[in-house]
Amino acid sequence: MTAFKTILFMLLVPGLLLGAMPIWLVQTDTALFSFGFLRWLGIPFWIGGTTVLFWCAWAFTVRGRGTPSPTDPPKELVVNGLYRHVRNPIYLSVLAIFLGYVLWHPSRAILFCPLIVAVSSHLFVILYEEPHLPKTFGAAYEQYCKSVPRWIPHRKHNG
Fold first, then answer.
1. What does the alpha-carbon distance between residue 57 and residue 155 come to, in Å, rounded to a whole number?
2. 90-114: per-residue pLDDT in tens?
3. What is the band of 159 on the pLDDT scale with cuts at 50, 70, 90?
4. Helical axes 89-104 vs 21-28, angle rounded to 10°
5. Model pLDDT for residues 18-74, shown as the tens digit of each residue
6. What is the DSSP-derived secondary structure letter of residue 138?
7. Positive or negative CA dihedral for 84, 90, 95, 96?
8. 59-to-66, 93, 113, 122, 153 alpha-carbon distances in Å
9. How many CA atoms lie within 13 A of 140 on its CB side?
10. Distance (Å, rounded) from C-alpha 56 to C-alpha 6?
11. Which of 91, 109, 129, 152 fits a disulfide with 121 by CB distance 3.0 to 4.6 angstroms?
12. By three-state DSSP, how is residue 51 classified?
C-alpha cells in the first residue's frame, strides 16, 4: 500500500508541478531570449533531477517505510545513498528540473520558477521539517543534521 501511495503522490504532485505546469508555461509563455545550442544542457538537468527524485521516492518507500508526502512521511530516518551527502536532495532535484526548463525556454514565468522553488523549499525546511523531524527521529536526526549539510554537499577530508 505504501508503494501505491508513493506512486499516486509522484503522479499528482511532481507530475503536475514538474511536468504539466512547466510544459503548459512553455507552450503559452513566449521565451524572452534563447540560450541557443546551450539550451540542450536542459536535458541533463531534467534527467539528473528526475533520477534523483525517483531514487529519493524509492528510498523513502523501501528504506523509510513511508512516502515523499509530508502527510505520510517515512517512519525510519533515511540517511544513506544521496542522503549521506545532502539532507534535501528532493528539493535540489526539483530545482535542477526547473533550471532545465530555464535553459530550454527562458520565459518570464519559467524564470521565476527556480527562485520560487528555492525560497519555498528553504522556508519549508527551516520552518517545518527541521523543527518537526527531531520530534519524530530524536537524537539520530540531530546528529544527522550536524554531520550532513542542508543544501550544498561538502568534500570529505581524508586524514
1. 25
2. 999 999 999 999 999 999 999 999 9
3. very low
4. 20
5. 999 999 998 999 999 999 999 999 999 999 999 999 999 999 999 999 999 989 999
6. T
7. positive
8. 9, 14, 26, 22, 19
9. 9
10. 11
11. 91
12. helix
- d(CA 96, CA 105) in angstroms, rounded, equals 14
Residues 6+ apart with CB under 8 A from 51: 93
Grid cell in block for residue 14: 511532481
C-alpha cell at 147: 554531520
Q: How far apart are CA 47 and CA 53, in angstroms?
A: 10
How far is Cα 11 from Cα 117, in angstroms, rounded to an integer? 18
Q: Would you kindly state where each structural domain of the chain is located, as residue ranges? A: 36-147
Grid look-up 537524537 returns 139
List Cα–Cα distances, 148 to 48, 80, 87, in angstroms. 21, 11, 6
CA distances from 117 to 4, 67, 157, 158 (A): 26, 20, 31, 34
The dihedrals phi and psi of 72, each to the nearest 5 degrees, come to -145, 65
Compute the distance between CA of residue 62 and CA of residue 67 in angstroms, rounded to an integer. Answer: 9
Grid cell 533520477 is found at 51
| CA distance to 87, 89, 128, per residue, from 79 (Å) | 8, 11, 19
Q: How many CB atoms lie within 10 A of CB 128?
A: 11
